[in-house]
Amino acid sequence: MQPILQKAQPIVKHKCDKLSVLRYNVLMAKSDNIIEVEHFKISFAGKTVIKDLSFSVKRGEIFGLLGSNGSGKTTTIRALLGLYFADKGTLHINGKQFEPGDAVRIGYLPEERGLYKKENVFDVMTYFAHLKGLTNAKTWIMDYLKRVGLEEFAKTKINKLSQGMQQKVQLGICVMNDPELLILDEPTKGFDPVNRRLLMDIIEEQHKKGCTIIMITHYMDEVERLCDDVLLLKNGVARAYGSVKDVRKQFNNKTLDQIFVDVYGEKEEA
Hints:
By secondary structure, this protein is an alpha/beta fold. The chain is built from nine helices and nine strands. The strands form two sheets. Strands 5-6-7-3-8-9 form a six-stranded mixed β-sheet, with helices on both faces. A three-stranded antiparallel β-sheet has the order 2-1-4. Strand 8 (229-234) and strand 9 (237-243) form a beta hairpin. Helix 3 packs across helix 4 (137-147) and helix 3 (121-131) runs parallel beside helix 5. The longest helix is centred in the C-terminal third of the chain and has 16 residues, at 193-208. The model is unreliable at 8-30 (pLDDT under 50).
């Protein structure tokens, strides 16, 4: 069993009049990371789900959070957003534990959808646009619906849409206010190649605007093409962590698909 992997941080050198070089580097390290998780542990009904997990996400990067179902990915995200409480450790966004009133703009697309199913698409999107302070809501919504092929469904109730259509609506709600942090749990699950490419284009556009993106996905080709850093979980333990290039190097330059199969093909120690 491999130990928990910690990604090496580069030594930063700066000139500074008022602060020592050491203190300055500490401050810079904190400001460079939008997310910092340290020694996170959580259990449910006496079963440990996450075991002493530590990792960070740099501002502006695309971070792949990988693992099979039940590995602890969604649990980690929910704890990061304050939906679960850690038994031990810290989970910080912008240097502090996240609270709903915090200034940081977060878009979260959970694997299970959370829309008002008896309302129509336009009204639901307008409601969230007002909550997010969008001033040109009608124009933005109709432009987005046209782009994703849902313009003719603007007045259709959510529960009359397919799961894929609902997913497009919820992604639109996530990105409408240009979030600083976008957390996507299986964003392209179940999509055909054309619609998968369309959604990934929208996600990449957010990244180009400076958005930090955490992406949970089982599509390793997406990870290799888009992600800067990755964390691979198995049974609540980090089995690989670092840049895509470094992780592949740790596993003899295998593809992420091959690494995933190797890690999950290993037998657990007794």
